Amino acid sequence: MSMFEVPGWSVGADPVKENGATSSKKRKRSATNDHHALEVNFDKIVEKLKSTVGGDGKKRDQKKNSPGRKKREKQRSNERPKSGSGDTTSLNISRPKPLKSRISVDVDSSRPAKKAKTRESISPSTIASTLTLAPSTSAGPKLTALQQGMKQSLDGARFRMINETLYKSESTEAHRLMQEDPKVFEEYHVGFRHQVQSWPTNPVEHYIMDLSSRPPKTVIVDLGCGDAALAKVLAPRGLNVLSYDLVPDGEYVIEADVFERIPLPGSEGSGKEKTSGSAQVADVVVCALSLMGTNWPRCLREAWRILKPRGELKIAEVSSRFTDVDEFQNLVGSIGFRFKSKDESNTHFTLLEFEKAARKPKSDTEWEKLISRGKILKPCEYKRR
């Protein structure tokens, strides 16, 4: 009887006898067990194939049931958020980066249009909306027709009183008045806008249309600007408009007594030779109905100081103020300007244009004589409304 059996092999019960040396003969397989061993091995192969191939004939992952795979699957299930929790902050998910915007090569629709070399003309409605009298925001009691008439008469009298003060005193006195009561400045300009509404045109409209075609970055200085209508229209179009008056508005208007000193660089020069000064920055100076005080020639002296050589001076004044237009032109020429043109076609105001010219420096005495000739312009008297 065999001591133990191994499929395909058999070992006798008695030990092998050795004759003093190890036998080199190989063990022989039992011929009787060969068929049984083949059946056993075949059954194992079939079971192995069943575990790796499904019933549909598709090959399954052989490593699916491996211990390492089961451990990894368990770890992933622990990291995966539970259904309904909505907590994805702990997951380190690699998300795709946003694509950079690509420039389309569609010539017909996507290519940006080239900027026009010339600016569009300003529409009359744009100018009108800037110059229109803003409605009062204060909610007061409703007035009867009689009360409204009395109020307008009082407002008109108040405006004429302020107007007379501004025209018949020096600019320093007007500046002091505005500083003590800034409401006076507002009342004057409200009354002024009421007056010019009856005019065929406003000189500011003319200068807006005239200067709108200037090259970008042109420096325009508006002296006695009022509510800075010039800057409000021209500045958005790329022109540099500097607006000065006695009371600032916190936006466009810079406070300055332009008859005494304009806060801009520029010199009058020195010596005895003709000069155009130096360090100027202004291309155009506009005085639209702003030569009001008795010392108004000093404003033109300041305009000469800040203007570049051959810079332009544009003056608009109520026609009734001139005692002699030719004498006015001579006075402006003595300050250092060359006369260019005059337009008297309007029924209410006169337009004059000058160009800065080189001149010899003047002494204080000479300047006092020129300023004393300021009476050539009369105070402006507005009719009752």
> First CA to last CA: what distance?
146 Å
Name the helicity range: 25-40%
Element order, helices and strands?
Answer: EEHHHHHHHEHEEEHEHEEH
Instruction: Let me know the largest β-sheet.
Output: 7 strands, mixed
If you average the pLDDT, what whole number results?
77
Strand order of the largest sheet: 5-4-3-6-7-9-8
Query: Which structural class do the helices and strands define?
Result: alpha/beta
Could you tell me the radius of gyration in angstroms?
50 Å
Number of distinct helices: 11
Parts with pLDDT < 50 across at least 5 consecutive residues: 83-96, 99-117, 133-139
Gross morphology is: elongated
Kindly estimate the percentage of residues that lie in beta strands according to DSSP.
Answer: 5-15%
Total E-strand runs: 9
Top keywords for this entry?
single chain; seven-stranded mixed sheet; 35% helix; two-stranded antiparallel sheet; 385 residues; S-adenosyl-L-methionine; EC 2.1.1.-; 9 strands; RRP8; RRP8_N; rRNA processing
Q: Can you lay out the helices and strands and say which pair or pack?
A:
Layout: E1 5-6, E2 9-10, H1 34-52, H2 67-79, H3 124-131, H4 145-168, H5 171-180, H6 183-196, H7 203-211, E3 219-223, H8 229-234, E4 240-245, E5 253-255, E6 282-288, H9 297-306, E7 307-318, H10 325-335, E8 337-343, E9 349-356, H11 364-372
Parallel strand pairs: 3-4, 3-6, 4-5, 6-7
Antiparallel strand pairs: 1-2, 7-9, 8-9
How would you characterize this protein structure?
Residues 121-137 have a biased composition (Polar residues). One of its GO terms (biological process) is ribosomal large subunit biogenesis. Keywords: Methyltransferase, Nucleus, rRNA processing, S-adenosyl-L-methionine, Transferase. This is Ribosomal RNA-processing protein 8. Residues 31-50 have a biased composition (Basic and acidic residues). This protein is an alpha/beta fold. It is built from 11 helices and 9 strands. The protein has helices at residues 34-52, 67-79, 124-131, 145-168, 171-180, 183-196, 203-211, 229-234, 297-306, 325-335, 364-372, and strands spanning 5-6, 9-10, 219-223, 240-245, 253-255, 282-288, 307-318, 337-343, 349-356. It has a 7-stranded mixed β-sheet with strand order 5-4-3-6-7-9-8, with helices on both faces. The chain has a two-stranded antiparallel ribbon with strand order 1-2. Helix 8 links the parallel strand 3 (219-223) and strand 4 (240-245). Helix 4 (145-168) crosses helix 6. Residues 83-96, 99-117 and 133-139 have low confidence and may be disordered.
